[in-house]
TrEMBL record, chains A, B:
Keywords: DNA-binding, Transcription, Transcription regulation. Residues 2-56 form the HTH lacI-type domain. It comes from the Bacteria. InterPro entries: HTH_LacI, LacI/GalR-like_sensor, Lambda_DNA-bd_dom_sf, Peripla_BP_I. This is Substrate-binding domain-containing protein. It comes from Alteromonas stellipolaris. PROSITE patterns: HTH_LACI_1, HTH_LACI_2. The keyword Transcription regulation applies.
DNA sequence: TTGTATGCGTTATCAT
DNA sequence: ATGATAACGCATACAA
């Protein structure tokens, strides 16, 4: 592949001049610029991003750490990031961390080795201290879906406690008194927080939510089916089910319908996330909107801004609150 | 950030020695190795991938060009690639090309500038010649979802003509004689090929498929709804609908149900792709399995192999054929 | 306006 | 086993 040197030689000018042409530098004759450009075209010259990054110490790239790409949720996240990187002519470097400590760590390290300027990190397995340390090394370090007080101004996150509360309140407002909960079996913050919000709301409404009305399973459709199966097996009575996410809600609905229980006529179901699926499934899912795409875009902007030298404001954080999307899976009782 | 030089200084050895330690070079004393490693640890040393890429001319990265990240289909594609890059300690560089000539071109160029070793490209807007040219520049250049005879051995693609035929044949075998088709309005190869297969099958079965029974819309749920609405508005009669993809099929089902037409009792519906949605929607979609994740993994492997110097075998290509997944949206009539 | 020279962080070649 | 040194491709301060 042709280098700047080859171009200089072919054009009969110096390296510096070519470099200036490439970067639209100011001090270069109009005709020389023309000629050099032509030759670059002819020789199919492409600047070497690595060499450039080495000397300028700026890589024009943003690293993204996420769990699993095939999860639609992370696809939305990635897309949110992409909208802003594209606008800024910044490249995306992807690193998957599958919610395992070692992998997440390695994912971040790899991005660091590539000297990405900014970083949007979705980490659930790493501890606060590790993340705080990284944020000190990388000016453009931003966390998504996580809140760490010490670096609050680098956190773009969803208030899941409020989310849980909103879910439960909505069900309660619709007259439901016997609630069941289908949660994720992974003991990370998100399910804990959502559950906390649900419990708060039930207590405030003087309802009881016995442990037996809470089922845990994998946070996907199969998990939702399984959890509902278990719930039904215990013979428990409930008129509304609050699921950890839309996939579990969908699974739960399927299982209910398979048992001849009409949704929402006999049992109401609520999801969380508002992914595509929520609109596609029948009945359409009443759920909580998790504006992950918007949040991811925000995180990317922030990361780029910090990377460019902006100082994170003290005492600031980027908290989003989910909102209820009323569709057809919940009815008044 | 500490460099190899800093480490050398701190350890009282030369650059060369440190470099050897980093790369697990052979000729270095056991104790020196220990000491250097310790110091690297202490100083938080991280090799600079850019510098390394510059001198070794190998970037340990694979570029991916795809259309839209938030499309679950591309999320699967990305995931397929990721499974093999992870295994090979190769980094993913993402570039979105939104099915526009200019953007796709720019996406590839950017990856080229980063000197990615391998490339998995999903391009629909670029012409054959351009792609062939690129493949000559980049040894590890592989196309996914596209077939170009001149570089057949770099193409991992799905036989959409056969796919279309299988769809139609399945419907016909189930006794359906009046078919309707919902296709994509984008005049790229995929819908054309699928339609071609459908037409072939209908002709072989001595059925007619008038142009009025084919509706075109955007390849998403809204498009499916719209297309079905149009179809119903014309008063056309049909007992089976073949959709361009699962999203359109889902939209079509919704619209049918909204019009009080039972699926599959009154009208059967078939999708294409077998994305998550196909299992989630009600009735579960009978569709064609498009093993995109597997294909993407194959493409990535191939790209890496070619990048490593393996010569593309002449006359070879990587064609996949979709298979029918029978679920609940099609019945015998 | 143009050219020269230096250095970015690393690997690799050649000495020692 | 270890060190000195020349690249790699580019940007840039300094000269001319």
């Amino acid at each position: 592949m042709a280098t700047i040197k080859d171009i200089a030689q072919a054009a009969g000018v110096s390296l510096a001049t070519v470099s200036r042409v490439i970067n639209n530098g100011p001090k270069v004759g109009k005709d020389t610029r023309q000629r050099v450009k032509l030759i670059m075209e002819e020789m199919g010259y492409r600047p070497n991003a690595n060499a450039r990054a080495l000397v300028t110490k700026r890589s024009a790239s943003l690293g993204v750490v996420l769990a699993e790409l095939h999860d639609p949720f992370f696809a939305m996240l990635a897309h949110g990031v992409e909208t802003v990187t594209r606008k800024n002519n910044v490249q995306i470097l992807l690193s998957a961390g599958s919610i395992e400590k070692e992998t997440e760590l390695r994912a971040i390290e790899i991005l660091l080795e590539h000297r990405v300027e900014a970083m949007v990190v979705h980490s659930k397995a790493l501890d606060d201290k590790t993340l705080i340390d990284f944020s000190k090394q990388v000016p453009g370090f931003v966390l998504i879906n996580r809140f760490i007080p010490e670096i609050a101004n680098r956190c773009v996150w969803l208030d899941n406690v409020t989310g849980g509360r909103l879910m439960a309140e909505h069900a309660i407002n619709q007259g439901h008194k016997k609630l069941a909960v289908i949660s994720s079996q992974y003991r990370i913050d998100d399910p804990n927080h959502r559950l906390e919000g649900i419990v708060n709301a039930t207590e405030a409404a003087k309802l009881t939510l016995p442990e037996s009305m809470i089922e845990y399973a994998t946070p996907d459709q199969e998990g939702g089916e399984l959890a509902m199966q278990n719930l039904l097996a215990t013979g428990a009575e409930f008129t509304a089910v609050l699921a950890y996410n839309d996939a579990m809600a969908s699974g739960a609905m399927t299982m209910l319908q398979d048992h001849g229980i009409a949704v929402p006529e006999q049992v109401s179901v609520m999801g969380y996330d508002d992914v595509l699926l929520a609109k596609y499934c029948r009945p359409k899912l009443t759920t909580l909107r998790y504006p992950i795409e918007m949040m991811a875009a925000k995180a990317a902007e922030l990361a780029l801004k910090y990377a460019a030298g902006a100082k994170p404001e003290e005492g600031l954080t980027f908290k989003y609150t989910p909102t209820i999307v009323k569709r057809d899976s919940v009815v008044r009782v």
